[in-house]
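Researcher: Following up on the earlier apo prediction. This time include the ligand. It's magnesium ion, with the SMILES given after the sequence.
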Amino acid sequence: MSLKFMFVDMNAFFASVEQQFNPRLRGRPVGVVPVRADTTCCIAASYEARKFGVKTGTIVAEARRMCPGMVFVEARHEMYVRVHQAMVAAVETCLPVHHVHSIDELSCKLSYAHMPFDAAVQKAREVKEAIRRRVGEYTTCSVGLGPNIFLAKVAADMKKPDGLTTILREELPHKLFDLKLTDFPGIGPRMHRRLESRGLTSVRQLCAMSADELESQWGGILGGRFWMALHGHDMPDLPTHRRTVGHSHVYRPNCETRRACRACSCDCCARRLRECGGLDIARGDWMCMLRFVRVRRGRRGRT
Ligand SMILES: [Mg+2]
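Model: Understood. Below is the ligand-bound prediction.
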């Protein structure tokens, strides 16, 4: 019985950070918002708010109705980046970080081969304790241990908040049978509809399929890779090549005109492009690529 990867996922990250640094928010339903407007949505909700059904993406006016005592705080992204860096540093005191997946998720390789079960669980406890000590006791995390990053992430999602869950190869596939298809990375709403339309509705059915069958469901080699991941095989990541630069931005309520939105979007996208460095796109070209999906007060626009 051995494990190879650890996945660390901070719980309700932005909301927990706010509760960590503002004691008055602790124990209360908190929604983090990009701007102060009823038309915008929560970009994070504390677990106290989630009990009322509020989640990431809930419109503020709706959240107020669902949870009358809810407190809304404006996002402080610089602070979240600092906490993210502290989280990475905390994990590094226990294990080298293998990959940072997002501001609140990272993975570690437990050893070059496999780590015995007890040692891996002990390492996970050390990581949780290091984060608690160095970041704060309100910024808890869920840790998953598995034979590959995919299953370690699935394990981390199985118990929230503050979980520690393991998936051993020996426990496959039955340990996954209680999950929903959408609990797996790579099965979003669109893929879910597609699978359902072909009669594939349960994880039990998914696990019983062969690699070839999954390839035909996915329409390519991704199905085969999904099969390998689902059955506990560890595969190297496919090389990726960045071809586009995207940026989501919530306009301030006073950013009313299309021209003002465009100026704001150009600014955000230009910064991203500069950060990428490698993209050789003339200014005139990228100006043409800007696309507004939704331009409304306090609503998200994609540029
Ligand atoms: Mg998270």
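Model: The CA atoms of residues 30 and 224 lie 41 Å apart.
Researcher: Noted. I'll compare it with the apo version next.
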